[in-house]
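To the team - iron/sulfur cluster complex, inputs and output below.
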Amino acid sequence: MNYYKNKRLYIDTLGCQMNVYDSDKIRQSFEECGCEITDSASEADIIILNTCSIREKACQKAFSFLGRVKKLKRNKKVAIGVCGCLAEQEGRKIIERMPYLDFVAGVNAIYRMPEIVKKAAETKYRPVDTGFDNPIEEPLLRSPKSKVDISEFVTIMRGCDNFCSYCVVPYVRGREISRKPESIINEIKMLVANGASEITLLGQNVNSYGKKNGTITFAKLIELVNEIEGLKRIRFTTSHPKDLGDDLIEAFKKFDKLCPHIHLPVQSGSDAVLKRMNRQYKIKDYIEKIEKLRKSVSNISITSDFIVGFCQETEEDFNMTLDLIKNIEFDGIFAFVYSPRPNAASRKFKDMTSEKEKKERLYRLLKLQEYYTKKKNKDIVGTIQKTLAEGLSKRGLFKNEKKEWTGRTDTNKIVNFITSKDYEPIGKIVNVKIEKAFSHSLWGIL
Ligand code: 5AD
Ligand code: SF4
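Output:
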């Protein structure tokens, strides 16, 4: 008898978009085995947590989730396990710490998960499938996932060879590997045929796509994706500044579906810190690339990531980061206090800055950026923005005669906008006149 008949899977996801994509694939592989999907952990027979280990906080979140679901084992037989980056990092140690777990699947095991869960149920032994002996191959898809969204992710490369000194990714995701162009294009065509309007190409280091395997370049891949009929928008994330070449800068001008937005993590404004981070560029190079991007596409929106309080970061280094924020005027940023990671080279670096000081720096940096985020939003009040409508806003029906929708501009800003009650914009790119700007969103009228 089919083991998965009448079984229900619950999967929760922590971390980045790559994990969101992987969880979708895991869901799909269980569905193909006849398993049902539930969004209630207490109703499930199988519970999987897809984990992240980029910072200590993400690891703590995973342990606290697993602590909470333990009690579900009291009333019925339920298999609980982990996959993803923390699973890869900790391996069997997670089971030693939480002996009620039934299986651990590393990042290369995502397509084997139905097998792993079945093995856990049929034997006494708790499978731990980690390591990089079997490099991951994206299988050719037999069918689209059951619910295709307006905006979908497609992973085009996995892993990272850069070894930034603070980063756990090269250890938990392994060496960089790019998917074959045909397989990516087929997947996107299938998503578009089933209702997707926007595709975000994903990779830890997305703009080095194809460099190592000698297939086509990332700019060429964008050209091929741009030709897909019915697709309206292309985005990509995350790019490394050192791999941002002129061909990609030109791509923003050449390919009409490529949205004018780039997420280009800089991490710090100090060359000394960047060197210790092993980032392989200087601030001068970064600024030059931003200038080129803005010259090529005047309205391009630029977002970035920052790590605050990296080992031996002085007040002077930190002030250089603040100067960079003033100089570039980013549309938005993500910023994090440095979190030492197992295996990462910086683990051995001296770190003199107190936690209190690091938190204060983070606060100052975010406060400064808040001004620029608002300024950038205010700058587009009064303009008309092409907006891809993704769904009804939280408010939905507006004063009983209008409807309020939510979507994003091509520059990736969230817009809530109203239309007459009978208009259905979902999946369409519509013209929205921006009337109001807030810190994290815009508001307008169709
Ligand atoms: N500590 C804090 N932030 C980190 N990031 C990566 N590793 C660490 C770490 N050890 C941040 C970087 C990266 C983003 C995804 O997470 O800014 O761009
Ligand atoms: Fe980590 Fe650096 Fe690779 Fe990004 S480029 S995943 S920060 S090692």
